[in-house]
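Exercise: predict the structure of this protein bound to adenosine-5'-diphosphate.
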Amino acid sequence: MSRLQAEHLYKVFGRRPDDAVEKLRHGTDREELRAKGTTAAVIDASFTVEPGQIFVVMGLSGSGKSTLLRMLNGLSEPTAGQVLFDGQDLTKLSARELREVRSKKISMVFQHFALFPHRSVLENAAYGLEVQGLPRAEREKRALEALELAGLKGWEKSWPDELSGGMQQRVGLARALATDADLLLMDESFSALDPLIRRDMQDQLLELQKRLKKTIVFITHDLNEAMRLGDQIAVMRDGRIVQIGTSEDILVTPANDYVAAFTQDVDRSRVLTAGAIMADPDKDFVMADAPATVTEDTPIIELFTPCSTSGVAVAVTGADGKLVGVVPRARLLAVLGEPAPSEPQDAVVPAQQAKDNGGKNVGKVSSGA
Ligand SMILES: Nc1ncnc2c1ncn2[C@@H]1O[C@H](COP(=O)(O)OP(=O)(O)O)[C@@H](O)[C@H]1O
Ligand SMILES: [Mg+2]
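Solution:
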């Protein structure tokens, strides 16, 4: 069973939201509604997140990311559609049941994490457990563990203003981890941090995730962050999810010109891996002749040197050391060029949107990085 499932979610702000959903379903344009003072913040969003995955939602400011996230933990009621968490429909729970799920099973980490200034770091990290009504000793034990996981061992007795911005953000992470929640919802949690600290936090999250295997929905407007963190990435534009895929999918086969424009500044050689671009070996391919043998997760930047010195393809092996594919020089060069034009994916690109994006008048889009 998927941990989290969004089915045809809509969120409309303004007058007569149900009417607006009906209109959207019948092809009315978002702009047309906007002109009448109605905002379609999320339009027909469907996706599933498997246990242990980091699912990234990426899009420019105003594309509907935060609204979508707030529906995932029941903070905001969908205008239409369903949210299933461990198979349970959040939209059908009573207010009390919802509070229970929210305090025990789902944790949220925001961009600007508000710490209580007159409480120690330990008390701040334990806050979610206090809300749950746990006894003090148990709270402190779990908060201590969480602080250690977040790299803040030794800072328990400090006050928030003694911590740097990055460390304060870690307290936020520790608070979320301390509750033992299965699902972490992170809304631009690293966006306010300096680039170096931000990268550090990304590494730390990936490291933590290897051990804790939480299910994480991570929101960002930064494509590079999305590519580093996401097992799956949903790209949002004007309230709609226009593509869902791995970072490789999005780079190699963007669903439309919009996604292609978004990704054009990404350093493909560092994001794409040998496993993502490899081809089937020829029948007469001999592994011993290959200029190099690499694993599937090797970034392709490491294949340039071997490919430049030999006409034979680089060999790619699986975890068991057996040959799983090859990367010939021509393939390497091809994936670094412009992405091949692809058919929009009907499943996630509504017809109208696909048509809009098919034209040549899509401007260059900043990746926000
Ligand atoms: N409570 C609200 N009332 C009215 N409009 C809202 C509300 N929350 C968000 N919006 C609008 O919905 C759209 C999506 O906003 P948001 O989800 O915050 O986008 P993002 O997080 O991607 O920047 C925006 O046009 C925003 O102005
Ligand atoms: Mg937002």
